[in-house]
Here is the input.
Amino acid sequence: MVVIDRIRIHGFRGIEHLQMPLSSTTVLLGANNCGKSTVLKALELALSDEMVVSMADFHEPEDGRAGDFLYVDVRFVPITGKKRRPYFSPAWQEEFKGHISRDAHGREFFAFRTAFNKQADGTTLKTRSELVQWEAGKAGAAIDALPQALQFVGIDAEEDIREAFLNENSFVSRMYEKLKETLAGNPELGDYPIQSLRKMLDGLSETLVGPGSKIPDSFVLTAQNIRALFSLVKHDAAEQAPVSALQGRGSLKSAAIMAILTLADLLVQGHRYRQKPLFLLLAAEEPETHLHPNAQRALMHEFSQLSEQLIVSTHSPYVASVCEPREFRSMIRTGANVRVQWLPQKLDAAENRSIKRLILRYRGEVLFARGVVFVEGVTEEQLIRGMFQAYFGDDPSAYGISLIGVDGKSYAPFMLTALSLKIPFCVISDNDGDARHVVLKQLEEMRRKVHVSENKKTQATCFLSPGLAIEGELVFKTQLHREIIDALMACSQSLNPSPKALKLQRERLEKATPKELKRRLEKKKAEYSGFLGEIILKNPYGQPIEARIPRAVLEAFETIAAWLGLEGVRNKAQ
Here is the structure.
């Protein structure tokens, strides 16, 4: 088996220069306009002749003078499982014949450059050449045509597949025509049922549309009548689509995906039948579009089963939840520069499990956040959400900030992820017992692991007053006495509907000592926090912001304001 382990892009669209490692599955993360789509299109430029480069595709630096040269380099290496092998198999030796090079360690690779140069007449000249030295980018002999064993399949949620039929170089057009040619030369193959394809399409139909939507048993799925599958995509009313469950549901997106994967599956089966090697790179741009969460997860499984290598750009935590931590590539644009961050590639088994269990399964939004606030649990999460709204005037999500309860003091996997992907974060922690020591020790260990130094602008730790957890801080260090009583009363209303009972309950709370109020809060925990967070936001007693929010939380908010470029917002908070 072979994979692309490196890609290098120069002068293409919004990327001036970028080199990125790829794995068998690579998941591109990042904000809009950070270059995710450009990476997918760069792979398409390198591995197919479908795309046509226009003048607008040449990178325009800050000085406004567009370049006249762009290129995309890719490097193929042999692997077994996830491990790189020193030599290509005999079949791939034959495919790459005459273009295989060796690195400094004697390991074989096949690398090539696809370049475009502007010409004086306004056209572009496309060339391909082998790279005999990857790091130096040293070019060798020209490559007239890529091996037929290398195939690129693109899936774009917003692309109209009907247009692909008009482009003779597109994967859809090429495979569709190849199917017709094969049947014309071998008509006896046309009526042979393809059971493996039926199974795949039934699964895809249920994945994309819903339970029960599959190909009718009466429809015999053969190579000859596969063309009927495209009737929905092409809007050919003269043909009857076999996937009847898709009709009338506005499921053109689902039908398009099924059509592309059908052709890809036929291509794979054909190469297996002829015992020929095949490398199929499937590149999907935001495949989650128009799909419900379970379908997003299931579709990723279908993609990975079909392709030798998969690269996906996404904004979906549901897509991320079925991936491995080492597969993420976070793209970050700073001015005109784009850089890529990733998690350590050699996480131990325990760390890998922790990230998958604590983050990807339930809190995948961390991967897409502009910044993160880590707290102990749901109590702090609900309280600080109300405080955040009181301070900033809007919900954290409006600023791209995620509030994450780590369920105790398990900060390490969250810190590791944020540090690796360069996501700014604050920790707002209790300060009772050994809490301070535990938090700071975890942070220092994670910094060492990813070789990151201390940066108080993007890595803040804010502790409550010495010896206090959140309930003690609220009672002893803020001026929220009336608000706390109101929150406890809100907790009691469902248990004591009688006005008389509620009156007596309030009188007891108003006479309670601070220690007694603290104990009552501790007994109610997550129940009181939602009510108190709302009361702090509404501010019924006209308290200044400093009286409603603990000092450590105010410090965290000041740090977040600096991330967002909103310094001084505290002065405007009411």
Summary: The first strand starts at residue 2 and ends at 12. The CA atoms of residues 483 and 540 lie 8 Å apart.
